[in-house]
Amino acid sequence: MDTARTTLSALRQRIAALETTARPAPPGEALSPRATARASRIALDRDAVDAALGGGLARGALHEIHAASGADTIAASGFSLALALAAAPAGRPIVWVRQDYAAREGGDLHADGLQALGLDPSALILVQLRDALAVLRAGGEAARCGALGAVIIEPWGEPKALDLTTQRRFSLAAEASGVTVLLLRPGARPMPGGAETRWLVRSEPAVPLAMNAPGHPTFDLTLLRHRHGPPGGPWRLEWNRDEKLFKRPALLRDPAAVPRIEPAPKPAERAPFRLAG
């Protein structure tokens, strides 16, 4: 408990420092975070997914992410980080609050993996706590800080503390601050809640790039819930870290991109064996 209190205190100090150094809006252009959050949306693919969401993912809202199976937990984490990168304004850090058990089950975050998805590890504030209640408290503190780019909250399983009231608090905090909050749910079943959207994520093989280089991270995404519209998907999309957008894999975009398989050449005729002696 002392460790959780110390970590939470350190997070509060870090958030206070960010709020102090955040650049204020120019006079005459200032909008309340709530008005800004309502007015803006995050482009995910500029195609079918954005159309299903009514123009993109709502900024300054709570969004929930589930893995389709235990083997897809890493893919759900990658998708959550991709959403955070798409949502975060340039120069603003991302806070990721994880429960220890989630890290043990899903693996620790790795700097090379973060960079592969397009995140500078120095722009990540990682908070790791032992119990789910501490994770939810720290996530709520971060969600209220308008100087952050995005917040990922990752408790393990289905803690009783994560009820509809807590999810509503996350939603209100995100709306007030304008910060997009992503609730990553490893080890939990999709259940009714207070999120703006709810996603189910499966990993898919990546399409290799030129010279057989590793392809972009690829996901199968299903929109299980959308507060302002019907569910949708599944969509198979790959994450482009340079553009911070999801796109259909190359083999689905362009039939000409399918590698042509030539028939194997006929074996050359060989001289008959000559018997010795």
Automatic annotation (TrEMBL):
<feature type="compositionally biased region" description="Basic and acidic residues">
    <location>
        <begin position="267"/>
        <end position="277"/>
    </location>
</feature>
<dbReference type="InterPro" id="IPR027417">
    <property type="entry name" value="P-loop_NTPase"/>
</dbReference>
<feature type="region of interest" description="Disordered">
    <location>
        <begin position="257"/>
        <end position="277"/>
    </location>
</feature>
<dbReference type="InterPro" id="IPR017026">
    <property type="entry name" value="ImuA"/>
</dbReference>
<protein>
    <submittedName>
        <fullName>Protein ImuA</fullName>
    </submittedName>
</protein>
